[in-house]
Design goal:
about 725 residues; alpha/beta; nine-stranded mixed beta sheet; seven-stranded mixed beta sheet; 23 helices; elongated
Length: about 725
């Protein structure tokens, strides 16, 4: 399918050929796009930012600059530069408002059926693309008397509506709208529908005239008309009861103007993108209330609402973003909102780049509503087109000299670490990239010279040139995908964790034991040069090791999928497994007893990411993992100490290794932290090509996974858990 994408590095726009999703996601729907709306102001701002130099980008986003500096302090300048390059190379999907038809319905998406007309919202979901995968809370049904073109305005309508709600309009109030672009014109109509007398303000007299035609009682031009007098005349000298700022500006001038036009104790609702620099004197003297509108309404940016489909009870939150979307369509259906008259241009989707030339000013021409129209397709053409044959359950035989690898999941770790490492590994080649978001798969296939892209694991398992798969998806899908690949006779490199619960682990264990294919989990740290050197330093020991791992893990944003038990398994299962495996590797033995203690739960920090885990190993070694999100992020993430028989070893954030014995300390330093990813990939590829056993045994993988489950149980129950 085709999708519009922009390079964040160069700003270049392309109409890319990407893999189409074949089925709806759980909790969502698959939509054949009929019409999508280009939001001139918002999308022009995104395009303009991408076209700026790296210095200009840095000035625009000082928050990201700080993150880069912190990463350089922790992991070195080279690692920070690689992270910046990866970010700049990421393509940006454009679009966030469309109408279309449901092509497929996923599990837990009640109320939708194939063929339903829907309108969809959300950057990254309602893309300018022929097919889109959309969560259920970002999709609403379209009334019969609303056309697809009208319904495609649903998102910008909801943005305008939320800004209107925050100004609390009442019948008879005087409300000023500053900025009469697309969202401003809709805002004028919605306020008029509330019974307000609306005054429109803009720099373009044509837009002021259009606002008056659409329901404003008066209007004026900034810099030309006496706007204060216009508002005073309409309000009997009091000033505006409310001001909605829908203009985007590089300065705070709209805020200054709002303060001049408002009456005492009025409300100012900020919708547009501008610096929030409030002039104190007028706002203090009039005691003005200022509120910043957050996009479509309550639920926006809440992953529990948008991605996981958890609605807010209507008795407590009357107007969520989805209910705002529905209200906009009702307003269009009842003709209280006229968006058809705001359409100025239509472009067939293959000519989409011409539309962007219009909104960016390359093609100077007045415009408001710019639509992209898509060719209608039969419903069955979207779901399972040319479905691949079921992969054979017999052992796969490699018939060529190099190991053909498909990468499933093209998130940040896969694209910044795993794939770059794979393509540098002798004897391996990248055959396919697979992602739930086709744009990411296409970009990385092109960037890393893969043979092509695919939509699903099943597609690549049907290809004889695919000998092995690397699975780097969200944690809850790991074991399911690994089981399918192993059953098809393919070697599997699975990013950690192996599973997030006992049921998944048991199914995976049974499959691994039946399969002749190699299975490996990405416990890379045991392959790091410093890790190998430390193990060798204690090779002659007769006593158990005393080991400590201090992990300054950093805080994960609230709602992140990693911390969700059903998706990521939580941070112990999802990340602490790394450190338990590392201590197991140094001990050369499996954990046999696990205890854990978390902080008290009455503070602002999560208990399951601030805990101490105690481990006893079968060889008599003991270890402690101190894992915390409460540390200063400028301090190195990882520090290890190992003691045995008069010898001490210390690894500091994989930048230095100290080994002390008999009063003498040997120190080795490195410019760039090496956590073992390259050696790990070489070991996996070599084992696959030569038919050797996996570099990490299944018994070791299973033992570490069960130890993470035991750690979760131990801190919750307060009792140690035996594993023998």
């Amino acid at each position: 399918m085709k999708q519009i994408a922009q390079s964040y590095r160069s700003g270049k726009l392309t109409l890319a050929e990407v893999a189409a999703p074949r089925s709806a996601p759980a909790g969502g729907i698959l939509v054949d796009t009929a019409v999508s709306l280009i939001s001139s102001g918002t999308e022009r701002a995104v395009v303009d930012l991408a076209r700026k130099s790296i210095v200009q980008k840095a000035r625009e986003r000082p928050d990201l600059v700080k993150k880069v500096i912190d990463k350089a302090k922790r992991e070195g300048v080279l690692a920070a530069l690689e992270a910046v390059r990866a970010k700049l190379d990421s393509p940006i999907p454009l679009g966030y408002s469309l109408a279309g038809r449901v092509a497929d319905v996923g599990k837990n998406a009640p109320g939708f059926a194939r063929g339903d007309r829907v309108a969809c919202a959300g950057a990254g979901y309602a893309n300018h693309a022929e097919i889109n995968s959309v969560p259920k809370n970002l999709a609403v049904h379209v009334p019969d008397d609303v056309s697809d073109e009208e319904a495609s305005f649903v998102t910008v309508g909801a943005i305008a509506l939320q800004g209107v709600r925050l100004v609390r309009p009442e019948l008879g109030q005087i409300v000023v709208v500053i900025g009469l672009g697309l969202i401003g014109q809709i805002t004028v109509q919605l306020l008029a529908a509330h019974g307000c007398d609306v005054i429109g303000v803009d720099v373009d007299r044509g837009k002021v005239k259009l606002a008056i035609q659409r329901g404003a009682v008066a209007g004026g031009l900034t810099g030309e008309d006496d706007l204060v007098e216009i508002v005073r005349a309409a309000s009997r000298g009091y000033g505006a009861d409310g001001v909605v700022i829908t203009a985007s500006s590089a300065t705070a001038e709209p805020l200054v103007l709002a303060g001049e036009l408002a009456r005492e104790r009025a409300r100012v609702s900020i919708v547009g993108l501008l610096p929030i620099e409030i002039p104190r004197k007028p706002y203090y003297e009039k005691e003005l209330q200022v509120v910043v509108s957050r996009s479509y309404g309550p639920g926006r940016y809440d992953v529990e609402y948008e991605e996981r489909g958890h609605d807010y009870p209507i008795a407590y939150v009357r107007w969520t973003e989805r209910r705002n979307l529905q209200a906009v369509l009702r307003a269009i259906a009842t003709r209280r909102l006229d968006v058809k008259s705001l359409i100025t241009h239509r472009f067939a989707f293959p000519q989409a780049l011409d539309a962007y030339a219009l909104i960016t000013g390359q093609r100077p021409e007045p415009h408001l509503g710019v639509l992209l129209t898509y060719e209608a397709k039969p419903l069955d053409a979207t779901t399972n087109p040319e479905a691949p044959p079921a992969p054979s359950a017999t052992a796969h035989v490699q018939t060529h000299g190099t190991l053909g690898v498909a990468v499933i999941g093209t998130g940040s770790f896969a694209t910044s670490v795993l794939i770059p490492t794979l393509i540098k590994t002798p004897g391996a080649r990248l055959v396919r990239t697979v992602s739930g978001r086709g744009l990411s798969a296409r970009h990385n296939a092109d960037k890393f010279d893969a043979d092509g892209v695919a939509s699903t694991l099943e597609e690549v398992l049907a290809l004889p040139e695919v000998d092995a798969v690397i699975i780097a998806t969200r944690h809850d899908s790991h074991s399911t995908l690994a089981v399918k690949a192993l059953a098809a006779g393919r070697d599997v490199f699975l990013e950690k964790p192996a599973a997030i619960d006992e049921e998944q682990l048991s199914l995976l264990a049974a499959t691994v034991r039946r399969s002749s294919a190699r299975f490996m989990v990405g416990y890379n740290r045991r392959f790091a040069p410093f890790s190998v050197a430390l193990q060798e330093a204690f090779a002659a020991r007769r006593s158990g090791l005393v080991m400590t791992a201090r992990i300054n893990a950093g805080r994960v944003p609230t709602g992140n999928w990693v911390t969700n038990a059903d998706e990521g398994g939580g941070r112990v299962v999802g990340e602490v497994c790394h450190f338990i495996d590392l201590l197991s590797y140094w001990a050369g033995a499996a954990p046999v007893l696990v205890s854990a203690h978390a902080i008290r739960g009455d503070g602002a920090w999560n208990r399951d990411e601030n805990l101490v885990i105690g481990l006893s190993f079968a060889d008599g070694s003991v270890g402690t993992v101190v894992y915390t999100a409460m540390g200063d992020p400028s301090v190195g993430k990882e520090r290890y100490e190992v003691f045995c028989e008069g010898k001490t070893a210390l690894i500091d954030n994989w930048r230095s290794l100290e080994i002390a014995a008999k009063g003498k300390t040997t120190t080795t330093r490195t410019l760039k932290a090496d956590k073992g990813h390259a050696a790990e990939m070489r070991a996996f590829v070599l084992a696959c090509r030569q038919g050797d056993a996996s570099p990490i045994s299944w018994e070791g993988i299973e033992a570490v996974t069960r130890a993470t489950f035991a750690a979760e149980s131990a801190w919750q129950s307060g009792s140690a858990v035996g594993l023998e």
